[in-house]
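Worked example 2:
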Amino acid sequence: MISFRTALLSALVALLVASSLIGCTGTSAPVDERPAEAEKPLESPSGPPPVVQPEESRPSPPPAVPEPVRLYTYEVVNAYPHDDGAYTQGLVFENGFLYEGTGLYGKSSLRKVDLETGNVLLSRDLTADRFGEGITVYLDRIVQLTWQSKVALAWDKNSFELVRELPYPRDGWGITHDGSRLIASDGTSTLYFLDTETLAITGQVEVRDGDTPVYRLNELEFIDGRVFANVWITEKIAIIDPGSGRVTGWVDLSRLLASRPSGKPVDVMNGIAYDAVNKRLFVTGKLWPWLFEIKLVEQGSGPG
């Protein structure tokens, strides 16, 4: 009887052990309780994509350093007689002759002048109510400004016959051209670019020496891509880049007239003309008895 019970218990124990082993070796997959990792972006074969900085955080390029302003004095090459009754407001040299515009009410005129002798070869007077100002020769016309009459005059270059009058809503001071447009001043720090037929403004630029506006721009001459401008009541000429308005040079003409003193009263320096063929630069002044041919002499440079 005891042997039978023992055998029965042994059989039950073996059966339980077998069932336990079967449950542990079943086909169910084990549960992975680790937290899932964040999905990673695919990387290109050449490496991770470049990091793009926001626009505002990108480093700015270094500011451009302006060219230094060149400083010039002069050497007198020659002196030619000039009418000491001519209140010079505009001056041009072309084909061996000077063309001159003079001012003052009742004395304003347009003239063709022989360089060597200073003799007036052809002249036209303005009406007494008009104060003549700057002139420029453009093709077969001479354009002459007036100070406060709000009109510009277009003359035939050969006959000096008045071709037409054009409205001009600003004070007239200096005028020149660059071959395709007229360039004018009005006594402020602004240069105006004008249509050659209508004189309508097509653009403008403020003239600055560094950060400082240059006022009282007067008689103008276009020379080798630059505008040369008398600065009224000074003995200086500003050399201007017409694209930016930046002064690229200064010409100091101090004591020029003192080299040939006059016993008569004179007024301020005004009048620049250029012989583009022979590379000659001429300057004079209001009521000056001489017109000077000068050579620029560079003295150094200043801050831009």
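Residues 1-5, 15-45 have pLDDT under 50 and may be disordered. Residues 59 and 146 are 52 Å apart (CA to CA).
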